[in-house]
Amino acid sequence: MATLFSTIIAAALVNNLALVQLLGVSTLFSFSRQFSATVELALLSFLVLFPAACINLLLHALILQPLGLEFLQLFLFVSVSAGITALLGQQLVKLFPLLARRHIRAVLLMCSNSAVIGLSFLQSTSLSSLPIKLVYSFGAAAGFAISLLVFAALRQRIDQGSSPAALRGVPLYLISAGIASMALLGFAGLV
Amino acid sequence: MTPLAENLFFQLLVGGSLLGSLLCAIAWGVAGLRKRLQEQRFLVDRINSILPQTQCGRCGHPGCRPYARAIATGEAINRCPPGGDRAIRRLSLLLNEARVPLDPAHGEIESAKVAVIREAECIGCTKCIVACPVDAIIGAAKHMHTVIASECTGCDLCIEPCPVDCIDLVERAPAFRYWSLAALATDPLSGEPCHD
Prior knowledge:
The complex is a heterodimer of chains A (about 190) and B (about 200).
Chain A: H1 2-14, H2 25-28, H3 35-67, H4 73-95, H5 97-109, H6 114-125, H7 130-160, H8 170-185
Helix pairs in contact in A: 1-7, 3-4, 3-5, 3-6, 3-7, 4-5, 4-6, 6-7, 7-8
Chain B: H1 8-40, H2 43-50, H3 64-72, H4 84-95, E1 113-117, H5 127-131, E2 137-138, E3 146-147, E4 167-171, H6 181-184
Antiparallel strand pairs in B: 1-4, 2-3
Helix pairs in contact in B: 2-3
């Protein structure tokens, strides 16, 4: 139990995908008109990241490794994550038209997002056992969603505050992303 | 004296409260989810309710609802001149898009207009009645027509078919929202002072 908990903490905070490993940073800067839209995007990114990472992990451990086909892993990871995003996009259009209208582009861009592929690669090279890897990918996906939320809230504060005209907008977003990433480095050694 | 943790009543109390709060949380989540699901339905209706219902066709669609349907499947939100900046702002909030200025290819923002028939010149041809998308013109063949000002959307579709050019678009006086002596003294439709 303690191992599971510490694995989740390690994946979500210490090795946070977006802010510490710098994978899928583009999603951090994705446009949102309101904070509630970012909440939806964070949920959707979790729904892409977690299943894609799990399926990639299982396919890698159960098919590629026994057959010695590890050179195919990039092809496999990309096609699995593209398939999952396409499936999610289809279901969104069918069941949640408003969500689909708001986020379909961001969701489709997520299919070859470096967060999905990078998480799968990190998992395939790590030496821990399969259940621990599954828990790790849950923690990493949750941490990615949380960092999206935190960064959207940060951006909202930045937009509302008064800032120098030269830095307003994207420059300040980039600087604050760097500072947030340094702040998360403070979690190093926590687990 | 048994420890508190082994007391049956204490266990029941703690277990019951935990179970109750869990059930409450689940019920709350389900209620929230149902509300969100209901919001998800009828996306076209929600977009249509933001559009101004002038049915003028300046967006390139035959009416407001067809444009709402097109927006729901991904068309740009800045093609409605009668809706103006207000409609674009509300659509951008609903659909999480950037707030863009109106597309000049589809017309410019104008103040609200209303059509007025110069009744002395009307020959009763009924062509404007056919053209009106909101049935705001009344009259019959070879009888004088007139515009129901409260129904008219100012879409200018009746101007072109009129064979004697007796229809004008005039500025609509702003509707008064609060009672005031100045408002009581003016005609709400034409904005001119009432004399009788």
